[in-house]
């Protein structure tokens, strides 16, 4: 999934980005409210981790702006432990959850997984598609119970296909979830990664919809 992390403290920002990337997601970062506001309005994210005490523009103003603009991605706000009023105000402004500082990274990742599950047809941390099983907690994949070795890019593509199982996803959409917004995105590389995935997954799991993109079948079609 594609996650925006907004935090002005450099060390914590780096720790958050590292942990969320290690969990199998693509991470964008912002260290001030103005950058965050722009990214959240112009780019598509599956979820946002948003600190409220930001320079330039405060986090609450950023969140209110997004919601006014119709941006409905789940937002997990970070607050100071003593600032209980910020939690209430944040939830009223449109936040989906909050976490008080200091926090354990494992708890943040668990809350993030819970927010992402609301977007998918999966009700647990383990996602199933036929004989394919993806564990969002461990960032692992198995087929018929046997571990599958995937590169980080292959895992990210499979995660998005499984989250939106049965939907057709374009190469551009997959590319946006794979690469940061300021990198050179090449949607043609998606074809290469999908081709590698096909060799590792049960035959027929990923369908090419000509001119539109790719779709993961809830169950591989019969040969």
TrEMBL record:
DNA-binding region(s) in UniProt: 124-218
- What stretches pass through the bilayer? none
Modification 4-aspartylphosphate occurs at: 51
Q: Which domain of life is it from?
A: Bacteria
Does the entry feature the keyword DNA-binding, yes or no? yes
Question: InterPro entries per the record?
Answer: CheY-like_superfamily (IPR011006), OmpR/PhoB-type_DNA-bd (IPR001867), Sig_transdc_resp-reg_receiver (IPR001789), WalR-like (IPR039420), WH-like_DNA-bd_sf (IPR036388)
Q: Which UniProt keywords apply?
A: DNA-binding, Phosphoprotein
Q: Name one Pfam family in it.
A: Trans_reg_C
Domain named Response regulatory: which ranges?
2-116
* OmpR/PhoB-type domain residues: 124-218
Q: What name is this protein filed under?
A: Response regulator transcription factor
Give the source species.
Comamonas jiangduensis
């Amino acid at each position: 999934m594609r996650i925006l992390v907004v935090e002005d403290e450099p060390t914590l920002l780096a720790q958050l980005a590292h942990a969320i990337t290690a969990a199998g997601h693509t991470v964008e970062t912002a260290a001030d409210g103005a950058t965050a506001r722009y990214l959240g309005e112009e780019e598509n994210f599956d979820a946002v981790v948003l600190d409220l005490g930001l320079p330039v523009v405060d986090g609450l103003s950023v969140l209110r702006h997004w919601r006014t603009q119709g941006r409905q991605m789940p937002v997990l706000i970070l607050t100071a432990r003593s600032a209980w009023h910020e939690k209430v105000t944040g939830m009223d402004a449109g936040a989906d959850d909050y976490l008080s500082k200091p926090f354990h990274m494992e708890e943040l990742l668990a809350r993030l997984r819970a927010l992402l599950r609301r977007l998918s047809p999966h009700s647990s941390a383990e996602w199933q598609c036929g004989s394919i099983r993806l564990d969002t907690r461990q960032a692992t994949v198995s087929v018929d119970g046997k571990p599958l070795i995937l590169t980080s890019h292959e895992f990210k593509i499979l995660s998005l296909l499984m989250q939106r199982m049965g939907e057709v996803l374009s190469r551009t959409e997959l590319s946006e979830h794979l690469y940061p917004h300021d990198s050179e995105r090449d949607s043609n590389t998606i074809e290469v990664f999908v081709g590698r995935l096909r060799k590792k997954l049960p035959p027929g799991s990923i369908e090419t919809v000509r001119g539109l993109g790719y779709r993961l079948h809830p169950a591989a079609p019969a040969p």
